[in-house]
Amino acid sequence: MTTPRIAIAGAGIGGLTCARVLQLHGFENVTVFERESSPNARQQGGTIDLHGDSGQVAIRAAGLYDEWRALARDEGQEQRKVDHATAALIEHELPEGDFRPEIDRGQLRDLLLGSLTPGTVSWGLGVASAAPGGHVTFLDGSTATFDLVIGADGAWSRVRQAVSPATPEYTGVMFVETRHDNDERLLDLTGQGTMVADHEGLMLWAQRNSGNHIRAYACMRAREDWKPSNAELLDLYTGWHPDLAAFLTGELIHRPLYALPVPHTWEHTPGVTLLGDAAHLMPPLGVGANLAMEDAAELALAIAEHGVRDGVRTYESVMLPRAIDAQERTNAGLQDMVPERPIRV
């Protein structure tokens, strides 16, 4: 029996998880196509807490649970809320009960990459488009046909157009990211996990990553094209404690938040399916990465049990309703977190 040819667009944690689980079940004719030139072409984002009922299930299916535990930070579950004007601690939650250790996204991606058969990822060859029947056109103009094309290529998926006309829409919320290393004042405020502060529609949160690295995010309602300078951002946060304002200094990375319409569904399309943000882009409230890994493992296991055609149908019948529920919850959560303000910037 010929092993199915499976193409996975995107070497993020979803695509890599899917490739790993497929290979564990004997599907060696799997290739991950990634437009970036190498694993180190760009930084891989902040820290991820793997949930017991989703991300951790997937990491077990990938046979990497022990390796993940060796890297994961239990102390990263600490949650701190401080007063915006005084920086005084007003809420404090230490790790207990709900077990969701943190791991840097880059560390998790490297773990998954290292588990794959050498040569699985084709670097520098991104997917430009896909079509029903498993037909792929690459960014260099070349084409190929596979038994299955899996779109794990994120928010602006090129594969999505093969099954759905939907495109991401701006949520009205802007994140402005800053990064800080070995700053004792900011490390003390952040604690071992996440710190938040909010006031009148403005929010600030900071997350400790490994190696005394902090990623901070100023959150507000804003125009999609708003790109504040440091002075403009600090002016917006006038009245906040100087120690909190210090998180807003340095290089600013502007991140308007997008989401797919809800519900986002499609008719089963032979030879093509989606997972992760390509299938259900939603506000980044701690769910997306876990869902991407859960999608990936479930898709691979369904293919292993039922074959490509029936496996994809089985996967989609479970994934799509779950995704709609998560999209609705995160959209509501974003509205609660950053409510509408009378004045928009």
Automatic annotation (TrEMBL):
Record domain FAD-binding: where: 146-325
Entries under InterPro entries matching the protein: FAD-bd, FAD/NAD-bd_sf
Keyword list, A-Z: FAD, Flavoprotein, Monooxygenase, Oxidoreductase
UniProt GO MF annotations: monooxygenase activity
Domain of life of the source: Bacteria
Name of the protein in question: FAD-dependent monooxygenase
UniProt source species: Lentzea indica
